[in-house]
Amino acid sequence: MNTLKLKYLCAAWPLVAATALLMPAAASAQQTKLITPQQAKPALTPCYAKNLTDRMLCGSIRRPLHANAPTQDASIDIHFAVLPAINPLHPQEAVLGFAGGPGQAAFDAAATFVHGLRYARESRDILLVDQRGTGKSGLLQCDSLDLTSQFALDENNLDMAAITRQETALCLDKLQVDLSHYTTVAAAADFEAVRLALGYQKLHLYGGSYGTRMAQEYMRQYPDAVLTATLDGVVPFNQSFGAMGAASDASLEAVYTYCDASPECRQQFPDARAQLQQLQQRLTAQTISTTVRHPRTYELIELKLTRAKLQQALRFALYSNRYRAMIPMVVEQASQGDYSALVGLMLAQDFAADLSIGVNFAVVCGEDRPFWTAQSQAEFTKSYLGHSWLQGAEASCNVWQVKPVAADYTVPLQTDTPVLLLSGGLDPATPPGWAELAMAQMSNARHLIAPHATHIVASQTCAPKLISQFINQQSASTLDDNCLKQELRHPFLTNANGTAMTAAAALQISPVSTPISDQE
Questions:
Q1: 343, 295 in Cβ contact below 8 A?
Q2: Which among 140, 119, 135 is positioned nearest to 80, based on CA atoms?
Q3: Which of 62, 126, 286, 398 is deepest in the core (most CB within 10 A)?
């Protein structure tokens, strides 16, 4: 399946944004009927997650695919993992983590969750549930191009909308699913069923990126189960993923503003902005055909360098302060015909192969696209990335035919539950203004901004301690946020000396987090 355009849509809500719905009373009652405590707790077996040495306990429960599922075949196994508390002072409580994407499996991101919640884990279990359609909960995925084929794709001279429609149709034919059963709204009941099955009385929620929207939807449907909620990299119900284009542009502009203020960067790259604009214009006009070293195997491969590939490489670099510091040098080298460092940054887009295509488009097509207006689309298309995302989503959603969620989906969550919202001042996906939209009707909420952090504050700052304090106090009012103001930006890399390719090739950016760089 040709999923290069699909990967662009999936990248980092993100990578991606969506919106959440207040379930109608009848639907809520019907869903609650489906969720009854099991007579016996599900069997738990030892398991281990990637990049995590701690032993976890894994299990699964069987769930109906939808309220009117007629047979056992119309069901799905929901996989979960529990990381036991170090000192279980609160055995009736757990911290439930919601993964990003949409389409990331929580179990796959276990190491990131454990890092951000390590202080909370001192007295409470960490609970991770693979959202339906992701990971071990019935992953909805289709074949994708390998990196070599992606590099050789010439977006400038192909009808990408037609290709997207064709390959989406093949994916739909393979999966044979109605994505309407995989929306944020539909998934909330699975998390509640796991809570009841394991016997937890109350939960503390932690969501990152798209996971913040899943957390908000869970709070809407099951408010009595929630003691606190921490939303990190906030995706509000009333914001479209198309707005990420403007967020990425603003984050990139901040790189060049910082370069202007840095004597070393300004001296080394006096025409930095002009170089970027000229390269963008050149790649918009025509494709650069060249040969480069594969960023993993270092074999010679073909590269069709386009504006689309450039923008994606830069966007992913913006997720990490370490790689933001490479951008002026990468652009200058590419402008001079040396694409090695840029190719290293392009490696990051390959992570999208791990995301659930089905869940991603269930959210985009069922919860986002139905609320587009002529005004909002005009605003989104002012950005190159916003324009390309909207085109791709339009082509794919016309094939998926996901049923739209209810019309009140975009109403902000109204709650008096204690909520802590965290934003990175340099976030290229979910800027601080998004948190302000989300908290419009939260009467017991506090928004903290780490001015030099990017996406997912808990991965980069002292936030893990603040989250633990918030959970213990069940209030954010007295939290001391001074530690969030620490400088996190890196000095600009002005001379590669053979290191740029190595550093860039090591780039591994997650849709829910940046590489862990604890600055406590």
A1: yes
A2: 135
A3: 126
Q: Are 327 and 490 in contact (CB under 8 A)?
A: no
Q: Give the separation between CA 98 and CA 101, rounded to whole angstroms.
A: 10
Q: Report the relative pairing of strands 288-293 and 300-305 from DSSP bridges.
A: antiparallel
Question: For 481-500, what is the mean pLDDT?
Answer: 83
Instruction: Tell me whether strands 75-83 and 56-64 are parallel, antiparallel or unpaired.
Output: antiparallel
pLDDT tens-place string over residues 2-29: 333 333 333 332 222 222 222 222 233 3
Q: Please give the structure tokens belonging to residue 410.
A: 């975009």
- Residues written for the chain: 520
Backbone angles phi, psi at 31, to 5 degrees: -70, -40
> What's the whole-model pTM score?
0.89
In b/e form, how buried is each residue of 85-107, taking b as 16+ CB within 10 angstroms?
Answer: beeeebeebbbbbbbbbbbbbbb
Q: Which amino acid is at 85?
A: A
Q: Residue 371: which H helix or E strand, with range?
A: none
Question: In one letter, which amino acid is 439?
Answer: M
pLDDT exceeds 80 at position 30: no
Phi, psi of 445 (to 5 degrees): -125, 155
Confidence at residue 156, expressed as pLDDT on a 0 to 100 scale: 93
| Identity at 139, one-letter amino acid code | L
List pLDDT tens digits, range 395-431: 999 999 999 999 999 999 999 999 999 999 999 999 9
Amino acid symbol at 169: A
Question: What is the crossing angle of helices 210-221 and 184-198, to 10°?
Answer: 70
Please check whether residue 185 is in contact with residue 405, taking contact to mean a CB–CB distance below 8 angstroms: yes
Q: Helix H segments across 40-181?
A: 110-116, 147-151, 160-175
**Contacts with 221 (C-beta within 8 Å, 6 or more apart), sequence order:** 23, 28, 31, 188, 189, 192
Contact 254, 426 (CB under 8 A): yes
* Whether pLDDT at 283 is above 70: yes
Which amino acid makes up residue 451? P
Q: What are phi and psi of 269, to 5 degrees?
A: -130, 70
Measure the CA–CA gap between 303 and 158, rounded to whole angstroms: 15
pLDDT: which is higher, 517 or 162: 162
Q: What is the mean pLDDT of residues 183-188?
A: 98
**Which domains are seen in the chain, by residue range?**
46-140+180-238+411-478 (3.40.50.1820), 243-349+489-505 (no CATH)
Output 396 or 70, whichever has higher pLDDT.
Answer: 396
Coil, strand or helix: which one is 77?
strand
User: Is residue 49 within 8 Å of 176, Cβ to Cβ?
Assistant: no
Angle value at C-alpha 397, between 395 and 403, nearest 5 degrees? 160
- What are the C-alpha distances in Å from 115 to residues 105, 162, 425? 16, 42, 21
Contact at 8 Å (CB) between 109 and 510?
yes
- Give how far Cα 121 sits from Cα of 193, 304, 457, 489, Å: 22, 47, 18, 29
Q: Is 86 helix (H, G, I), strand (E, B) or coil?
A: coil
- pLDDT at residue 349, as a whole number: 64
Average pLDDT over residues 353-359: 87
